[in-house]
Amino acid sequence: MNFKLRLNQWGGWLLAGGLALSLAGCGHQDAPAGTTAASTPSGTVSLLNVSYDPTRELYEDYNKAFADYWKQKTGQAVTIKQSHGGSGKQARSVIDGLEADVVTLALGYDIDAIQQAGLIQSNWQSRLPNRSTPFTSTIVFLVRKGNPKGIKDWDDLIKPGVSVITPNPKTSGGARWNYLAAWGYALRKNNGDEAAAKQFVSRLFKNVPVLDSGARGATTTFVERGIGDVLIAWENEALLAVKELGQDKFEIVVPSVSILAEPPVSVVDKVVDKRGTRAVAEAYLQYLYSEQGQEIAAKHYYRPQLKSVADKYAAQFPKLELFTIDQLFGGWDKAHRTHFADGGVFDQIYKP
Amino acid sequence: MQKALKPHSILPGFGLSLGFTLAYLGLVVLIPLATLLLKTSTLSWDRFWSLVTAERVLLACRLSFGAALVAALINLVFGVLIAWVLARYTFPGKRLIDGLVDLPFALPTAVAGIALTTLYAPSGWIGRYLQLLGIKASFTPLGIVIALTFIGLPFVVRTVQPVLQDLDRQLEEAAATLGANQLQTFRRVILPQLVPAILTGFALAFARGVGEYGSVVFISGNMPMKTEIAPLLIMAKLEQFDYTGATAIALVMLVASFAILLSINLLQWYSHKRYSGAGGGICL
């Protein structure tokens, strides 16, 4: 799995290199006409979408759909390049100079980091509907067929003898959603008692035998190596795992309460203004909210925001009580400082 | 000054080649490392100190250096053995085995990590039998040692093998005619000539092990305070966009690695001088 990831990283570099070259080429061709490639209605334009790992297939589908739509609307051909990797790693690449026109990452915290580096405007999250989150997901459990340990809800994960697989929140963005989902559940159950929540999450992590560095690594540990009784995972990852690996091996357990996972999107202002691709980049993100964009998201097991599509796929996404990170944690920045920064709650759990 | 530096040599172009060496090393090694130092220097001393002396960092460094040391020692013994067999004997399939030795070099470390974890996990081919013996390999420090042994093996073999091949057989024959038994010949005639090469191989395997990341993250389980290696802590800091924190740990590892390599080098020079009897050519 991580080998794939490495390849992707190389892919990212190659892409960046290719992009730089093609950019240079375009500049030469179009310089005499006084226009850039992007603003030529009949020319071609390219976008780079820097995203996180499990959205590869989703954006492959979506990019085709968007290219058709854009061609029909403006007559301009658009090619969209994709770069995938761990969310935080991708954000760092953009900060370090990977020329992404749009970023579609696993958590707002990572886009905030790019914003703090001065590449994105500070109001980014309010520029698109639903806090710039075109589709959502949530955190559910994957258990072995027949659910031998009888896991129904979060409480079952802290029982002695239950082995839980989740990646390390210090190295994986996705794992932070898992962690906060458990914390939020405990907080709600104990009427907001932080100490009780901390104890709950501590006990849960005492049941974790392996902390993989990323979400796909954790899935491998659970699925391939047969370690653990339950995997805490994003709903779309769990649905994909069941579909790919067979329903005769795994089952999804939906807890009573979980977190609303919001993977947000943003245009990278500095890059689109430099490359002259703002119009198409903005349209690219807006089209995610359209009926077709939402349909593609739903097909890839992400929860659509648009009601008509959500209704159509209602059977795929069980109803459960969802809380947001803003409601219970006061946003990513605060959640990060409290829980994941050095010396934060997560570190305290592992104090001997 | 120039006279003191300039050795008597029939090869011309000392000034030019030294200049090139310094410029090249500066560009490729020194400048990148200096940026590390520069980045770290934005931290206050107190902050730096509390960062690198945090219990978790110390434990991770101890694990990284400790596991690398154990793995390098294992490779020292078995690497010399393999080099011995490859240099001194002919047997069918020798070329193949000779080529296999380099595989850990060429393999992407992530591939090694995945393969080793699959083998040594409780459900794996080897792991399931180890489990019967009550040994847990993957997701324990033992797993880390296994991974580091794997990736460090070629270093010892490839440094010792050519020296063994070039050894003058006449010396051994002379020792035998003077009445030395096999053990004495090995200990007093062959081993001294091998020591510098063995030390070099050991140092290389050790250095590689300290910095290894790709293969270890899979097999270690990454449990804080228990099986967390220092490079993983650096990755964790980067994931939180804590660049200075990451470079602080990196700097500590750099300094420690350099100190260890330097002392091994000194040891090697010393042994070379002692055993070969050639006094000249070494100056610090």
Give a verbal description of the structure.
The complex is a heterodimer of chains A (352) and B (284). Chain A is of the alpha/beta class and 352 residues long. Helix content of chain A is 48%, strand content 16%. Chain A is built from 16 helices and eleven strands. In chain A, the strands form two sheets. In chain A, strands 4, 5, 6, 7, 8, 10 and 11 form a seven-stranded mixed beta sheet that branches. In chain A, strands 2-1-3-9 form a four-stranded mixed beta sheet. In chain A, helix 2 (56-74) links the parallel strand 1 (44-52) and strand 2 (77-85). In chain A, helix 3 (87-95) runs parallel beside helix 4. The longest helix of chain A is centred in the N-terminal third of the chain and has 29 residues, at 2-30. Mean pLDDT of chain A is 88; it is low at 1-40. Chain B has 284 residues and is mostly helical. Chain B has helices at residues 2-5, 14-40, 45-52, 55-88, 94-101, 103-106, 109-120, 127-132, 141-166, 169-177, 182-211, 216-220, 230-239, 243-276. In chain B, helix 4 (55-88) packs parallel to helix 9 and helix 7 crosses helix 9 (141-166). The chains are: A alpha/beta (352), B mainly alpha (284). Chain A binds chain B through residues 1-3, 5-6, 86, 88-89, 91-92, 95, 113, 168, 170-173, 209-213, 217, 224-227, 336, 340-342, 347, 350-352, and chain B through 51, 54, 56, 108, 110-111, 113-114, 117-118, 121-124, 139, 214, 217-218, 221-225, 232, 235-242, 245.
